Amino acid sequence: MRILVVEDEKDLSDVIKKGLEEEGFVVDTVSDGQQAVNLAWDNEYDIIILDLMLPVKNGMEALKEIREYGINTAILILTAKDMVEDKIKGLNSGADDYLTKPFAFGELVARVRALLRRGIEENNNQLMTGDLVIDTVNHKVLRGGIEIPLTVKEYAVLEYLTRNRGQVLSRTQIEEHVWDYRYGNTSNIVDVYIRYLRQKIDNDFEPKLIETVHGRGYRIKVIENET
Question: Fewer CB within 10 Å, N side or C side of the chain?
Answer without folding.
Answer: C
